[in-house]
Amino acid sequence: MKNITAFLDLPKTTHILDLPCGKGRHSVFLNSLGYKVTGGDLAENSIQLAKNFENDTLKFKVHDMRKPFNNKYDAVFNLFTSFGYFDNDEEDIQILQNIKNGLNTEGYFVFDFLNAEKVKLNLVAEETKIVDNITFHIKREITNGFILKHISFFADGNNHSYTEKVKYLDLEKMTSFFTKVGFKVCDVFGDYHLNNFSARRSDRLILVAK
Ligand SMILES: C[S@@+](CC[C@H](N)C(=O)[O-])C[C@H]1O[C@@H](n2cnc3c(N)ncnc32)[C@H](O)[C@@H]1O
């Protein structure tokens, strides 16, 4: 994310909200660049771990992004496919509205998501991977507007299985969500080097909005 802060030419006085921040890896990095950073995440255990990194200009708090913020920020970063969890589009749009309302005038929103179109074009329906002597069976599908990854494996004497689920959100749909809440898309990038977005080739869909 160094590239994006340099591209946006954010002054060091910028207060960035990293939402959701998980265990705080991007917040810590952004803070190391000299920015004041607040990280928010719904997962209490992640925030508990992230709090170990706190300092005068780096704070973490439990926050559900469906709820409005108490503070205003100069920039909000939503990184590493941390959106599109909800069946109902209105909840996703509410999150964007909260972010918009939580930004100072001229504030930036940076949205970093998987490139759904490339995922669809290259979908590997089934594969097996061995990591640390554990065999993972992976099945992928796109159903009812969601990209689903089913993972199952046997470890510690037990069978485990879980599903990762994220909404199929392409550039067109995200642009329509952004427009609904009054965000104007300024830039569209296709990777962390900030190359132009290509629906067929890019790994990421990165939007910068104001
Ligand atoms: C894919 S992780 C990425 C976290 C972080 N951006 C990173 O790159 O490490 C997505 C995060 O979204 C959080 N999350 C899910 N629903 C949320 C919600 N309603 N409000 C806030 N955080 C949420 C999860 O707890 C998880 O930490």
Please trace the helix and strand order, writing H or E for each element: HEHEHEEHEHEEEEHEE
**Under the CATH scheme, which architecture of the largest domain would be assigned?**
3-Layer(aba) Sandwich
Number of helical stretches of at least 4 residues: 6
How are the strands of the largest sheet arranged?
Answer: 3-2-1-4-5-11-10
Question: Mind describing the biggest β-sheet?
Answer: 7 strands, mixed
User: Portion of residues in helices?
Assistant: 10-25%
Distance between the termini: 18 Å
- Kindly report the oligomeric state of this protein: single chain
Query: CATH superfamily of the largest domain, called what?
Result: Vaccinia Virus protein VP39
- How large is the radius of gyration? 18 Å
Work out the number of β strands: 11
CATH topology of the largest domain: Rossmann fold
**Number of discrete domains:** 2
Shape: globular
What binds here, in terms of ligands, is: S-adenosylmethionine
Low-confidence stretches: none
